[in-house]
Write a structure and sequence with these properties.
about 35% helix, AB_hydrolase_1, Pimeloyl-ACP methyl ester carboxylesterase
Length: about 280
């Protein structure tokens, strides 16, 4: 299968890194997770080629502050600025309403946007992979936030977010993930999510807050994918989330942690294609 190609574009005034595969197919946007070293290639390296082969034009941008995109954080509105940047990516591609898949931070930001009064992202379908719902500030979360840029620190992050120890013990994989976390400015941008002004409690700034997202307002078909052994979410969160979205399906992967798209990529691709094919068939009916 043809691998994804890497390119850059200046969008919303920012140098933006994109991975792309399958030009000319149905539009499909992939939004990556937000752990240290997280970027498009770490989230989607094993799924882009088979999705493109199945007839999709797949684009995976690096969020602002992550990967090889400019290292910028809007401290007044970090989520809004990142979402508007992704909207600029979609506009640059000439897409009206792509299907959008988000993993972890990508899925949470996507769900929050689609449930808002004025969504920024024009999604025709949404896939939330370990995203959405209350994000607890628990021991597992703190293990992913306490990162000192060492190999062992990255190993600890991988051992937390992945159920199987295979990848965290794979020295080549560990080296690759560690090197991506060392891109200048990446640590600072990722660390910004844990900042909290004085007098506003303890813990990371984006974590442990009540979830006031009105999921009932999400108007497109939605697939919720969760790992049964995800330590970064509360047990049963995905069932509650899917129940609140009007047109939702839920898949829970056993023997899987926070990254189903990384731990079980073959099943994930099959399930994603099945969901998207049924969605397109329903539109054509």
């Amino acid at each position: 299968m043809t691998p994804a190609t890497s390119r850059y574009a200046t969008l919303d005034g920012m140098r933006t890194h994109l991975l792309e595969a399958g030009v000319g197919g149905r539009p499909l946007l992939l939004l990556h997770s937000g752990e240290y070293g997280g970027c498009a290639e770490t989230s989607w390296q094993h799924v882009m080629a088979p999705l493109a082969q199945a007839g999709y034009h797949v684009v995976a941008p690096d969020w602002l502050g992550f990967g090889r995109t400019d290292k910028v954080v809007d401290f007044a509105d970090p989520r809004g600025r990142r979402l508007r940047h992704i909207a600029a990516v979609i506009e640059s591609l000439g897409w009206a309403a792509p299907a959008i898949v988000g993993n972890s931070m990508g899925g949470t930001y996507l769900a929050q946007d689609l449930a808002s009064d004025r969504p920024v992202l024009p999604a025709s379908a949404a896939v939330l992979v370990s995203g959405g719902g209350f994000v607890p500030d628990n021991d597992a979360r703190r293990a992913t936030l306490d990162y000192d840029l060492s190999r062992e620190g990255m190993r600890r992050i991988l051992a937390t977010v992945l159920y199987s120890p295979a990848l965290s013990q794979d020295e080549d994989y560990l080296t690759w993930r560690h090197e991506l976390s060392l891109i200048p400015g990446a640590w600072q941008c990722t660390a910004s999510a844990r900042l909290r002004p004085p007098g506003q409690g303890v813990g990371g700034g984006e974590f442990g807050k009540p979830d006031d997202t009105r999921y009932e307002r999400i108007g497109c078909p939605t697939l919720v994918v969760a790992g049964a052994q995800d330590p970064l979410r509360l047990p049963g969160y995905a069932d509650e989330l899917a129940a609140r979205i009007p047109d939702a399906e839920l898949l829970t992967y056993e023997d899987c942690g926070h990254m189903p798209n990384i731990e079980q990529p073959d099943r994930f691709v099959d399930d994603l294609l099945s969901f998207l094919d049924r969605r397109y068939a329903r539109r054509a009916a």
